[in-house]
Design brief:
- This protein is mainly beta.
- It is globular and about 45 Å long.
- The strands form three sheets. Strands 1-12-3-10-7-6 form a six-stranded antiparallel beta sheet. Strands 2-11-4-9 form a four-stranded antiparallel beta sheet, covered by helices on one side. Strands 5-8 form a two-stranded antiparallel sheet.
- The protein has three helices and twelve strands.
Length: 198
C-alpha cells in the first residue's frame, strides 16, 4: 500500500518542481481532461544527468509511453518507471512549446512550456541549456507511415492519471501546458493535480 505524503493543484499554464526521493511515486492527474502536461526530470544529486528521449524510445521500442516503460537518463539509467496509467500512449517526440516556436508556427509569441521550465529550473541553477526534449503526458502525436506527424486533439478524460516511481532521487519538473494555439489542450488549459506517495 502506498501512503500519500503530498498533494497540490497546479494552476492552468503554471510551472512546478519537486525532488522525488528514490522509491517514491509521483502521480500526475489530469483533473478536467484534455490537458497536456510537459515533463522533465534530472538526477537530483547531479543535474548534468537528465532525461534522454532517444534512450527511452530505443529501450521501449515505441514512441508512446505507458505502463512498464522507463524514462532513461542520458547515462542510460532509470529515472522513473511508469507503474500505472489510465491514459496510455504519452508523447515523447513533440517537445515543448515556447514563445519562439509559437511565433514560428502560429505568428504569435505567446509564452509556452519552455518559459515555464526556465522559471521552475532557475532555483536549482539550471537554465536554457539544461532543457532537453521532454515527455508530454496526456498528449498524442500520431505518426503516419510516411513519417508525417501532427499534434492530436487532447483525448484524456477527467481524472486520468499516470504514476511514475523514482529509480533514484529525481528532480521532477512540470509545465502545465499553457498552449492555446494548437489542440493539445482542446484550446482551453485547465488545472491538474500532483500527489507523492511512499
Amino acid at each position: 500500500m502506498m501512503r500519500e505524503i503530498h498533494r497540490e493543484t497546479i494552476a492552468p499554464g503554471a510551472p512546478w518542481s519537486r525532488i522525488i526521493a528514490e522509491g517514491q511515486t509521483l502521480r500526475i492527474i489530469d483533473s478536467n481532461g484534455q490537458q497536456a502536461v510537459d515533463f522533465l526530470c534530472y538526477n537530483a544529486r547531479d543535474f548534468s544527468e537528465r532525461y534522454h528521449a532517444p534512450n527511452t524510445i530505443k529501450k521501449a521500442g515505441h514512441i508512446l509511453l505507458t505502463v512498464g516503460d522507463v524514462l532513461y537518463s542520458d547515462r542510460a539509467r532509470p529515472l522513473f518507471t511508469i507503474t500505472a496509467d489510465t491514459f496510455g500512449g504519452h508523447d515523447t517526440i513533440g517537445g515543448c512549446c515556447s514563445a519562439p516556436s509559437n511565433g514560428m508556427l502560429y505568428g504569435i509569441h505567446n509564452p509556452g512550456c519552455r518559459e515555464n521550465f526556465l522559471a521552475a529550473l532557475e532555483p536549482y541553477g539550471l537554465g536554457w541549456r539544461d532543457i532537453v526534449p521532454n515527455v508530454n503526458w496526456f498528449m498524442t502525436v500520431p505518426v503516419g507511415t510516411a513519417g508525417d506527424a501532427a499534434i492530436a486533439l487532447g483525448s484524456s478524460r477527467a481524472g486520468d492519471h499516470v504514476d511514475i516511481r523514482a529509480g533514484m532521487d529525481v528532480l521532477a519538473v512540470i509545465s502545465n501546458c499553457p498552449q492555446v494555439l494548437n489542440p493539445c489542450n482542446n484550446f482551453n488549459p485547465t488545472a491538474i493535480e500532483v500527489a507523492v506517495f511512499e
